[in-house]
């Protein structure tokens, strides 16, 4: 009887070990197989079609951006609920939607309409729980692509409610940390400001334009390295001091997305002129930090490795800057960034080399892989 018990225990142990090892091994094998032949594109047209097709595939089967850097015992993370986070996934999907919307094709309209049916109920409210600031980017994608804004207003109003619940006494929105938070993140600018500006325009609520613009204005006052356009990851309100590094690549991406997409939603007037001046300053600064291969780094001013999500965001940014200022130097920057992204694109059209999600202030991912956020931004960068 004792022998049987030992055998059963050994068998259970072996099964568990194989399950954990098999999960890790299959993921690594799949990743390595996908990377074979990376960057081998004969011409840009076929590359762009592959990138777009991958974005379509991912719209309904969005790859997971892990919460942790763990590449071992991934099954354990899944069982403990540490592998996937709905808020992180929300801005991955949002960027895919915005990228496909940029195509302005009949197929894109149809696929996005199907997607909206997945996230919204018949009464225009969210099907999922929306209680974090991160979801503002998803709300922006819904409202930006909706042909009937009144039909989605319940969901949009809910998003505004969430943002107001995180509006602090200094007039800035915290990163889902409530009204009494003393920390302001650069991420928040890219997530909330374009949504607030669009909401204000669509529903005739001008106070949210001022709220959107003031977020950018105040972050520039306290969250930028003096004399530069380098944003810190976050800053402490009462002490007025930075938290973590200046120039984190995706941090700059969040800043320029908040800046550019808010600008594009505004009607002509003083606020738009103010943001236009900020865009010019950012463009003049960031173009100097582009690497010779067209990339931008995980630390944009130097010291990090090339990072595809920052490069995709800056490709999109400089594309728009080119149209605003009609200066070919900005088109060249965008084109160089796209060339780099092409060199980091796998055979299935997925763009590799994106830094994983941050784990907290000053805790940056060491994993570089695919990220739907970058995929959508790359499509938005296409001329």
TrEMBL record:
Any one GO molecular-function label of the UniProt entry: hydrolase activity
Annotated keywords: Hydrolase, Membrane, Transmembrane, Transmembrane helix
InterPro entries xrefs: 6-hairpin_glycosidase_sf (IPR008928), 6hp_glycosidase-like_sf (IPR012341), Glyco_hydro_88 (IPR010905), PolySaccharide_Degr_Enz (IPR052043)
Residue stretches spanning the membrane: 6-27
Gene3D superfamilies: 1.50.10.10
Pfam families: Glyco_hydro_88 (PF07470)
Gene Ontology biological process terms, A to Z: carbohydrate metabolic process
PANTHER family noted in UniProt: UNSATURATED RHAMNOGALACTURONAN HYDROLASE (EUROFUNG) (PTHR33886)
Annotated protein name in UniProt: Unsaturated rhamnogalacturonyl hydrolase
Top-level taxonomy: Bacteria, Bacillati, Bacillota, Clostridia, Eubacteriales
């Amino acid at each position: 009887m004792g022998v049987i018990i030992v055998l059963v225990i050994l068998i259970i142990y072996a099964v568990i070990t194989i399950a954990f090892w098999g999960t890790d091994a299959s993921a690594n094998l799949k990743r390595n197989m996908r990377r074979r032949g990376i960057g081998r594109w004969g011409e840009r047209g076929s590359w762009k079609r592959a990138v777009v097709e991958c974005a379509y595939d991912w719209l309904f089967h969005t790859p997971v951006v892990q919460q942790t850097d763990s590449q071992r015992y991934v099954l354990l993370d899944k069982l403990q609920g540490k592998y996937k986070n709905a808020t992180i996934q929300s801005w991955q999907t949002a960027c895919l939607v915005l990228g496909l919307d940029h195509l302005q094709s009949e197929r894109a309209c149809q696929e996005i309409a199907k997607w909206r049916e997945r996230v919204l109920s018949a009464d225009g409210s969210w099907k999922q729980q929306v209680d974090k600031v991160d979801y503002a980017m998803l709300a922006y994608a819904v409202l930006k692509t909706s042909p009937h804004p009144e039909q989605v207003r319940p969901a949009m109003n809910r998003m505004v409610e969430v943002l107001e619940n995180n509006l602090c006494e200094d007039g800035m929105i915290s990163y889902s940390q409530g009204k009494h938070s003393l920390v302001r993140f650069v991420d928040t600018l890219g997530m909330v400001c374009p949504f607030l500006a669009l909401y204000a325009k669509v529903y005739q609520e001008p106070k949210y334009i001022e709220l959107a613009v003031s977020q950018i204005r105040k972050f520039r006052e306290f969250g930028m390295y003096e004399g530069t356009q380098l944003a810190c990851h976050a800053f402490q309100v009462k002490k007025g001091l930075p938290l973590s590094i200046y120039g984190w690549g995706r941090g700059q991406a969040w800043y320029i997305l908040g800046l550019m997409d808010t600008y594009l939603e505004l009607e002509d007037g003083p606020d738009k002129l103010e943001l236009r001046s900020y865009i010019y300053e950012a463009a003049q600064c960031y173009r100097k930090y582009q690497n010779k291969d067209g990339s931008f780094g995980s630390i944009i001013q130097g010291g990090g490795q090339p990072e595809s999500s920052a490069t995709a965001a800056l490709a999109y940014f400089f594309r728009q800057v080119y149209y605003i200022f009609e200066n070919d130097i900005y088109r060249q920057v965008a084109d160089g960034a796209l060339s780099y992204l092409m060199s980091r694109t796998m055979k299935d059209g997925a763009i590799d080399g994106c830094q994983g999600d941050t784990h907290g202030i000053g805790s940056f991912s060491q994993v570089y892989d695919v990220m739907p956020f970058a995929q959508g931004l790359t499509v938005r960068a296409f001329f």
